[in-house]
């Protein structure tokens, strides 16, 4: 690195020579060319040999000076040529071709060198900062596995998107879980000029499974070693990042550093900021071999094409095999092997300034990487303690991290002006659908919501469940917003089976939910609850979209379509599984109705049997659901018959019927045109009837609605006349669609509506 800087200093000295030597020479000549205030020509043709003041000695002196000037000009010409060649190897000056390129730190080329002198470990930075083409795609590789890492990746990507000005191509080496989560997330995020490719991490396990690893990252912590083999053969360079990274600057600045690689340098790394590889942390501490302090692999610049030519695969394998004979296992996963290779081949590494990987583990020298906030580029939470790590400025770093953690990801859907984006079929279809809507329509916002794509993060928390082998398993399906969070623990106590929940939250609320769940023993003890975050966008609560998301991601053959405000009776899960067999739900189109009741008391001694419930019903502690507000919604259940029923009984569909049912997982989705309050369940039950589902009431099942403050949507329905008009319009359009789709049989819905 010192040699590189010396070479650049020579070029700088040459530049100064070019500027100042001719200037001084000409000043001298110019001054000497005045006699008595009159200019004297330096040209031999214009000299005055017959002038009395002209002498032979002065003539020789002037001729000698002219020869020297020509020599200096020739030297300057050679220096200019050398300087232009040096600049041609690196990127052009930011003023050249300004319409196509931009400087990554405009006006800070020298300040970066100054910081390099101030900040420990930054001696490799000198000279002017390179440039990156405006629309050049930056390639980023990340290894990601599991539920927690998928959440971390989102925060990392937010920090990159926030600062970026270039198209991005993410190469995600992911297991099946992470791929499902992140594929859905990016598909629904719809960020322009961002491409995502997935590579199956499980297929790569055999490449590294022979290496014993003690690091908490497990086998996935070794997969950066095989990126030359995994990533496309035509990909020449890539930035490799750990999931616990936060960017504080444009990633293009880091991409530009590739231009500084010389000779056989193929790895860009920051020096390790702890004493780990020095081997003095404790008695008998024996780390893997490393060059000095070694290098941290949380941020890596890989020149893939050169690494392949160097036979990187063979290089790291031979090194690992040899070292494992004495070390037996790795302690820091891939980092140990990278450092062992570098120890033998130091010419491979280009040392990045340490602000490109400020490592916030305990007892690091990270504070030497910055003197001011503006020095920060990349923060690396590489301690198992993560945000609880000890550091003098950890509060600042934590706040920076939390900023991106809770930042509204919808705001990052911004176009990169001047850069053509790849054609996205989903985006084009969405724009086409929206363009067909009439913006002057008073119900435009309702209609628009049907086509809104909400960013969706599946399985926000760890999920682990294998459905029962007897094919009778049932998942409870519900949706909620932040104001119903308190119902989760109670539902988990009442329902021991799998649950699929769609939560409508902002980014900040999602983090509040995470903290709430992690602080709850009840929720943390349950691994069979799938929490799917649908991020807020628009002015309506997309109730039916949420239900569809929760329905789509169940792993059982049957589902109980409930609402978050209801507590199922104790033992309902097992009762439904028996009913599935008894009523042959696998081979018939049935919707099993669970009768709904309600209480107006916030504290309720929950009935443990049907007999106890009937007693409370008679005493006025419980009521049939919405009997005093919306009788038609559940009247067809026939509660009078249910009181004495001992066997399941069939009921017929009636207008506005909206019971809670158990159905097969292949039942139709909810209609998305209905948002907020009104007709969202009614329309679904109507479609089940149109598809000839048989409604069967279960005689020994029940659920109870718990009291709560009115939702914002029902308040809008009651107070806003236009809201009610639009809902009526949507109902009529839905019924017309039903008639077109189901033909003559669906005419009864129009008749029933007119008679109701």
UniProtKB/TrEMBL annotation:
Biased composition (Polar residues): 44-58
Localization of this protein: Golgi apparatus membrane
DNA damage as UniProt keyword: no
UniProt-listed InterPro entries: Glyco_trans_8, Nucleotide-diphossugar_trans, Xyl/GlcA_transferase
Molecular function per GO: glucuronosyltransferase activity; xylosyltransferase activity
Chief subcellular location: Golgi
Membrane disposition: Single-pass type II membrane protein
Record-level GO cellular component terms: Golgi membrane
Record keyword Flavoprotein present: no
Region annotated Disordered, chain positions: 42-62, 89-109
Catalytic activity: 3-O-{(1->[3)-alpha-D-Xyl-(1->3)-beta-D-GlcA-(1->](n)-4)-beta-D-Xyl-(1->4)-Rib-ol-P-Rib-ol-P-3-beta-D-GalNAc-(1->3)-beta-D-GlcNAc-(1->4)-O-6-P-alpha-D-Man}-L-Thr-[protein] + UDP-alpha-D-glucuronate = 3-O-{beta-D-GlcA-(1->[3)-alpha-D-Xyl-(1->3)-beta-D-GlcA-(1->](n)-4)-beta-D-Xyl-(1->4)-Rib-ol-P-Rib-ol-P-3-beta-D-GalNAc-(1->3)-beta-D-GlcNAc-(1->4)-O-6-P-alpha-D-Man}-L-Thr-[protein] + UDP + H(+); 3-O-[beta-D-GlcA-(1->3)-beta-D-Xyl-(1->4)-Rib-ol-P-Rib-ol-P-3-beta-D-GalNAc-(1->3)-beta-D-GlcNAc-(1->4)-(O-6-P-alpha-D-Man)]-Thr-[protein] + UDP-alpha-D-xylose = 3-O-[alpha-D-Xyl-(1->3)-beta-D-GlcA-(1->4)-beta-D-Xyl-(1->4)-Rib-ol-P-Rib-ol-P-3-beta-D-GalNAc-(1->3)-beta-D-GlcNAc-(1->4)-(O-6-P-alpha-D-Man)]-Thr-[protein] + UDP + H(+); 3-O-{beta-D-GlcA-(1->[3)-alpha-D-Xyl-(1->3)-beta-D-GlcA-(1->](n)-4)-beta-D-Xyl-(1->4)-Rib-ol-P-Rib-ol-P-3-beta-D-GalNAc-(1->3)-beta-D-GlcNAc-(1->4)-O-6-P-alpha-D-Man}-L-Thr-[protein] + UDP-alpha-D-xylose = 3-O-{(1->[3)-alpha-D-Xyl-(1->3)-beta-D-GlcA-(1->](n+1)-4)-beta-D-Xyl-(1->4)-Rib-ol-P-Rib-ol-P-3-beta-D-GalNAc-(1->3)-beta-D-GlcNAc-(1->4)-O-6-P-alpha-D-Man}-L-Thr-[protein] + UDP + H(+)
Transmembrane segments: 12-31
Pfam family, one: Glyco_transf_8
Recorded metabolic or biological pathway in which this protein acts: Protein modification; protein glycosylation
GO BP term, example: protein O-linked glycosylation via mannose
Keywords recorded for this protein, A-Z: Glycoprotein, Glycosyltransferase, Golgi apparatus, Membrane, Multifunctional enzyme, Signal-anchor, Transferase, Transmembrane, Transmembrane helix
Family designation: In the C-terminal section; belongs to the glycosyltransferase 49 family. In the N-terminal section; belongs to the glycosyltransferase 8 family.
PANTHER family: GLYCOSYLTRANSFERASE-RELATED, XYLOSYL- AND GLUCURONYLTRANSFERASE LARGE1
Name of this protein: LARG1 glucuronyltransferase
Source organism of the structure: Emberiza fucata
Lineage: Eukaryota, Metazoa, Chordata, Craniata, Vertebrata
